[in-house]
């Protein structure tokens, strides 16, 4: 890259970040239901959801038709896991990686619930990184240390060596190659819709990041971090 190109690159990046910081609204507070103190498990066919906060077991089964809420018992150690036993609910958590059959998303635990005598199985615990980026869909949640615009939908899809979706304004598409944890993107094509300044700035930051070789890594929560050698970073959350 020539000196002139480097200067233009850094000026552009600085302008984008200034625009984002000036337009950014205050991010909403954390959702209590998403607290790290709440253990969540879920499964399919029939759909069910279990939340445990240390005080109660809150179970919704049969796509929400069955609802059981009981005080949390003292957990018992089991083979490679823990067991929670009540009169109406028995929850077995096994510390073994589990893949959700509907979304393909991976979690740390395999969970079996017996609710009023009916047994269902599914996944729980922390999200795990996907085994491959292929056929995964993500939303952008952070640009460097700043949250994305809360009222703007983003979606980034990886499939068959191609990237597509939207970073907040236009539809984008292109191809990419991967070597170990390094991603190299082709010139990304995008539509030419006019959008508000803050959305345009958010999109420009993401597209600028992809112009250089990108390093891929995952957080302990299974979020995807893409960064380049210019210090730009984007954090994405996998869609369920």
Q: Could you describe the 3D structure shown?
A:
The chain is mainly beta. It has helices at 3-23, 197-209, and strands at residues 39-43, 48-52, 56-61, 66-71, 76-78, 81-85, 89-94, 98-99, 106-115, 118-128, 136-143, 146-147, 155-159, 162-166, 171-179, 182-185, 189-190, 214-218, 224-228, 233-238. Strands 1, 2, 3, 4, 5, 6, 7, 8, 9 and 10 form a ten-stranded antiparallel β-sheet that branches. An eight-stranded antiparallel barrel has the order 11-13-14-15-16-18-19-20. Helix 1 (3-23) packs across helix 2. It is elongated. The model is unreliable at 1-12 and 22-35 (pLDDT under 50).
Short synopsis of the structure:
With 240 residues, the chain is mainly beta.
